Amino acid sequence: MMALLVQQGASISDSRAAAISVGLHLLLVAALVPLWLFSIAAGLISSSPLATIRQPAAPQEQEILVPEIAAVFEPEPAPRPPEQHNFIRTTAPQASATPPEKAPFESDHNTRAGSSSPADPDGPAFLPSQAGLDIPALEFLRQDFTDGALTGTPGLQATPPPPRETPLPLPQPAPPAPAQPPPAENLATSPDGAPITIAAATPLREPTPAPAPAPKPADTPPEKPAPPAQNPGNAMQSETRPTRVKGGLTPNGAAPSVDAADTPMGRYQRQVTSAIEKEWRTKRRMKPDAVTYGTIELEFFVNKSGTIEGLRIKNPRGAGPIMQDFTLSAVLEARVPPIPRDVLDSLGKDRVPITYDIIVY
After folding, report:
1. Is residue 278 a contact partner of residue 116, using CB atoms and an 8 Å limit?
2. Are 169 and 212 within 8 A, CB to CB?
3. N or C: which end of the chain has fewer CB within 10 A?
4. Burial of residue 332 (number of CB atoms within 10 Å: 0-12, 13-18, 19+)
5. Whole-angstrom Cα distance, residue 271 to residue 278?
6. In this structure, what are the phi and psi dihedrals at residue 56, rounded to the nearest 5 degrees?
7. What's the pTM?
8. How many angstroms separate the Cα of 113 from the Cα of each of 108, 140, 243?
9. Three-state SS for 356?
10. pLDDT in tens for each of the 361 residues of the chain?
11. Kindly report the CA angle at 154 between 150 and 158, in degrees rounded to 5?
């Protein structure tokens, strides 16, 4: 009995070991099968024609031949940015025979920097120090306005004064007739000897001739405009007053001035501002009561044909309405010349920006 039990226990343990062995083999197979399937799939993909097509080719150096005709289609160069033009009004007494180097201003004269006052350590090194008025314009001389021809602008002469009217001659009264003596009495006698008084016939007075009509004055032909002035002394002179400046320019004993270069732009801006000043002076004489002390700051453009565009007053409270009105009219009616070709080439555009201050001292 004991031997049978021992034999049965041994058989149970053998079957349990066999089951464990089978289970371990199944687990091993389950782990190896996916790896085997993946290796098979990878082999199929690598041998597929699609895999060969999708593989990128190794980069190779290629020589590109550019035909000579391509030079015709070169891109246009970028437009040159417009230059900054700092205009300053100068006069002939300030002119210099030699232009300065790297002048910070443009004008219609070459001028050299000068100063006779101590420099301000905080002032700009290119400006002289001087006493003067607190005005927006930069001026160095004191001079009054003198009408005359506009230099550089043919056909604009001094404004002639209005012609005086020739007074008509007054009719002269007729001379009084000479006094006639009283009629003389002729004494005669009648046949009986009695005196007879015969009144003498009153002599006929010659009619007084009518006064001759006053001769009409000959029609004065309109004055022809004078030819352009050739003498620089006949040029218009602007009214200026020195500006109070605190500059850092080292004194050199010369009259106050700055480095300015005579350029086409400087000459053209002087022509524009002088033409406006000339027209403004004419309108000011017609309305003297409307002029008040102060400054009118103007801003506008001049197109290539010389027409004013975009005109506006930057400080509307700088003058009364009547003065503003004839100031705007003076700008629009001024005989501004067209922009010269050399100025257009330096601009890169078809109009010139102008800022101009009309100052009543």
Report:
1. no
2. no
3. N
4. middle
5. 11
6. -70, 145
7. 0.57
8. 15, 11, 16
9. strand
10. 444 333 444 455 666 767 777 777 777 767 776 777 766 666 554 554 444 445 555 556 655 554 444 444 455 555 444 444 589 999 888 899 889 998 999 999 999 999 999 999 999 999 999 999 999 899 999 999 999 888 765 444 444 444 444 444 555 555 555 555 544 444 444 444 444 333 333 333 444 555 555 555 444 444 444 333 334 568 899 999 999 999 999 999 999 999 999 999 999 999 999 999 999 999 999 999 989 998 999 999 999 999 999 999 999 988 899 999 999 999 999 999 999 999 999 888 899 999 999 999 8
11. 40
Q: How buried is residue 249: exposed, middle or buried, by Cβ count under 10 Å (0-12/13-18/19+)? A: buried
Strand order through the sheet with 351-360 = 308-313, 294-303, 351-360
Pairwise CA distance, residues 321 & 46, whole Å? 93
Token output for 324: 């503003």
